[in-house]
Write a structure and sequence with these properties.
Elements: E1 13-16, E2 19-29, E3 32-38, E4 44-48, H1 49-54, E5 58-60, H2 76-81, H3 85-103, H4 128-139, H5 143-156, H6 164-167, H7 177-189, H8 198-212, H9 223-236, H10 244-251, E6 270-276, E7 281-282, E8 289-290, E9 292-299, E10 305-312, H11 317-328, H12 356-360, E11 375-378, H13 387-395, E12 399-402, H14 412-424, H15 452-465, H16 487-498, E13 515-519, E14 526-528, E15 531-534, H17 551-554, E16 556-561, E17 564-571, E18 577-582, H18 594-607, H19 613-624, H20 632-647, H21 656-659, H22 662-668, H23 677-680, H24 690-701, H25 710-713
Parallel strand pairs: 6-11, 11-12
Antiparallel strand pairs: 1-2, 1-5, 2-3, 3-4, 6-9, 7-8, 9-10, 13-16, 14-15, 15-18, 16-17, 17-18
Helix pairs in contact: 3-5, 4-5, 7-8, 18-19
């Protein structure tokens, strides 16, 4: 009788270290059961029975047949799980019919009869031939088919009722191996090509078979069979069903085990990545819609965003450096933010400290944790591998580790943040265009409402208020798998677990991430791109401008933030940092970017012969005001934007987190501004008026608003 067990006793043979040995004696000792083995040369050896049965050195020589894990036969559970639910239902129902033939009961047991069982035509006393004929007549099949079902059920149970074609190779059991090999070769050739049709692929497979096997004729399957086989191959080599980008990603998957860096504390690994936002923004100076890109720095262990930056059109190397600058010196939070969204100045959460309110007082602080990254995970973009960024990282001891080419999972948490940002925030903002061209609306560009700096403020606030405080499924401590952790809670947990975090040794080191410009100190201060900066700290350096000292020694490095031209920073000969103010900075209540200032100068040059920066700034601020200047076109445009603001409906339940953000609510809740009568009564300017020329220029510049402004005229 065969079975899974076999006898082990005196006379049982083993293959030990390549030699055949025989068990000749058992010995029971205090340490366990041992056996005495004898080889072919009558040599004896004693060995633990446990080692004999479990060691890779020994193998039992079977003396009778029985089941083995190396057999091709599969159990019913494995065979049935390969089927779809409908196929499983058919097989299980067929098994009930076979059990009724063999036993008279569909359950197969006399103790579990169903109503009316046993039926007369399947009574246990009837001969099997009569039962076969009755079941064949009932199901509308031949007597031979019923006998085959019964024979297969006796041997393999429910698994025997499954077709061999379905069991083997996922539906390719009857396919010629040469045809399958040629089909796989053709599918692999289309991994980086445009999506073909199944008809074209089958024609190429047939042509390849004729070329590859000239002396042997390989049978070509019928059209329906070939389509079914190609559908089975699609599971392993997707070509027709998914997008071509997705097919390439699947084809590029590693064939081995997926590797992964495992951070153990905050600041150990910081991910940096850039993506194009799925929402259009308005340029604050040209008032035209533009693409926007977001660059972030994320702490891998906690998923905290320690730096972000929104840039128009494309991202530069200085933008990536500015994101790291925020990791060392985070921006302060506005007073309108909730209390729990503000981190203390040193970046340690309030929950870690005792009597935090006594130490910190009211809600003040920064929008994210402060930490010094140990390793940067970046892609191979030029902005991350620039000489400026890599040199600063080398000086600060930050290791720059590029990710593998075309391997997005190396920065998986950052990619997941971009998806969460799109699903939870961006798609509820005006100007949302969707993740791809197939999801884009009719004309999302006309809905662009927020300026780039407003969009950055909204993303920063959503990150601090919602993202950092909401539990993430990916944040799991192996010791506490059921505890849901948010990035802020994970930061506290990581701080308690590691006992420390890497903080900047000197906060002033962050200035080295900024753009460097070499300039001499004149009697009026320092001039950079037509802007003059001055301060008391330059008093000892002014007389160097006209001296006989070499120019290389007279030039000093000045560090400027491209988003804030109102100030620059420099380090004197005593290695002390100072900040210089722009001479026109008192006229501004906010930072002014380099690009905005250049546009303001061009705007002033169109109207004045000899404009200065003060006049240019005044014109730019006037343009940024709600009225957007004094021209009729700009005022009408402002009214149109205001009406679109009021028309936005963000009161749905799923948009509560977005509309509750102070930055969004403050803008979207503005009341509708009626058109002043004085504006409607304005007559067209007379010929030769200077304002007429300005109006014509603005109308040409803003011609893309012409259609949208018709509703306001009505």
């Amino acid at each position: 009788m065969s079975g899974a067990g076999t006898r082990l006793g005196v006379g049982t043979h083993f293959r030990l270290d390549g030699e055949t040995v025989e068990v000749v004696e058992f010995a029971s000792l205090a340490t366990g059961l041992e056996v005495v083995l004898k080889d072919g040369r009558e040599r004896l050896a004693r060995m633990s029975l446990r080692e004999l049965l479990t060691s890779d050195r020994a193998e039992l020589i079977q003396d009778r047949p029985g089941p083995s894990s190396a057999d091709d036969e599969d159990v019913a559970a494995l065979v049935l799980n390969r089927l779809t639910k409908d196929e499983q239902k058919v097989i299980l129902e067929r098994a009930e019919h076979v059990r009724e033939i063999l036993t008279g009961y569909r359950s197969g047991s006399e103790e579990l009869p169903r109503p009316g069982e046993p039926r007369p035509q399947y009574a246990p006393g009837l001969p099997m031939r009569a039962r076969y004929e009755a079941k064949a007549a009932e199901l509308g099949v031949t007597d031979r088919t019923v006998r085959r079902w019964a024979r297969a059920f006796r041997e393999l149970g429910e698994a025997g009722l499954v077709s061999k074609t379905v069991q083997a190779d996922g539906g390719l059991g009857n396919a010629d191996s040469r045809w399958v090999e040629a089909a796989v070769e053709v599918l692999k050739e289309y991994e980086e090509e445009s999506r073909p049709s199944v008809k074209v692929v089958l024609e190429e497979v047939e042509a390849r078979l004729k070329t590859k096997f000239k002396l042997v004729k390989v049978p070509v399957p019928p059209r329906t069979t070939a389509y079914r086989w190609m559908q089975e191959l699609e599971r392993h080599h997707p070509t027709f069903r998914l997008s071509t980008q997705r097919n390439r990603d699947i084809a590029d998957r590693p064939r081995g085990v997926y590797g992964k860096l495992r951070p153990t504390r905050p600041g150990e690994y910081v991910l940096m990545d850039t993506t194009r936002l799925d929402v259009f923004a308005l340029d604050p100076v040209t008032l035209r819609w533009m693409q926007a890109e977001l660059t972030i720095a994320m702490d891998w262990y906690t998923r905290c965003i320690i730096g972000l930056r929104v840039t128009p059109v494309s991202t530069k190397a200085i933008d990536a450096a500015a994101v790291l600058y925020q990791a060392y010196r985070p921006q302060p939070v506005p007073e309108s933010w909730p209390r729990e969204a503000a981190w203390p100045e040193h970046g340690i959460p309030r929950g870690v400290l005792v009597e935090a309110e006594v130490i910190h007082g009211p809600v003040t602080g920064v929008w994210g944790p402060t930490m010094a990254p140990e390793t940067l995970i970046v892609d191979h973009g030029k902005i991350y591998l620039s000489a400026h960024l890599t040199s600063v990282c080398r000086r600060m001891g930050i290791s720059v580790q590029p990710a593998r080419l075309r391997t997005g999972r190396d920065k998986g948490p950052a990619e997941r943040y971009f998806r969460t940002l799109r699903e939870d925030l961006l798609q509820r903002l005006p100007g949302y265009k969707g993740p791809d061209v197939h999801s884009r609306g009719l004309n999302p560009e006309k809905d662009a409402f927020f300026f780039h700096h407003e969009l950055e403020a909204i993303i920063r606030e959503w990150t601090a208020v919602t993202y950092h405080r909401r539990p993430h499924e990916g944040l799991v401590d192996p010791h506490l798998p059921k505890v849901e952790l948010s990035p802020a809670a994970m930061f506290e947990h990581g701080l308690a677990r590691a006992g420390y975090i890497e903080v900047p040794r000197d906060p002033n080191l962050a200035y080295e991430f900024l753009d460097v410009t070499m300039r001499t100190v004149q009697h009026y201060g320092v001039e950079i791109n037509g802007r003059r900066y001055n301060g008391d700290c330059l008093d000892g350096l002014r007389d160097m401008a006209g001296s006989d000292i070499d120019l290389d020694k007279r030039r000093l490095p000045f560090f400027a933030d491209p988003d804030d031209t109102t100030r620059i920073h420099f380090r004197d000969h005593e290695r002390v940092w100072h900040t210089l103010q722009w001479e026109h900075a008192p006229s501004l209540a906010m930072p002014l970017s380099e690009e905005a200032l250049q546009f303001a100068r061009r705007l002033a040059a169109k109207e004045y012969t000899y404009p200065d920066d003060r006049l240019a700034i005044a014109l730019l601020l006037k343009r940024w005001n709600l009225g957007l200047g004094t021209s009729l076109v700009e005022r009408r445009m402002a009214l149109r934007l205001s009406r679109e603001q009021v028309a936005l409906d963000l009161r749905q339940q799923q948009a509560d987190d977005v509309s509750s953000l102070p930055s969004v609510a403050r803008v979207l809740s503005l009341p509708e501004q009626p058109v002043p009568p004085a504006i409607e009564a304005v007559q067209e300017p007379e010929a030769g008026d200077a304002d007429a020329d300005c109006l014509e220029e603005l109308e040409e510049e803003l011609d893309f608003y012409a259609t949208a402004l018709k509703d306001i005229d009505d």
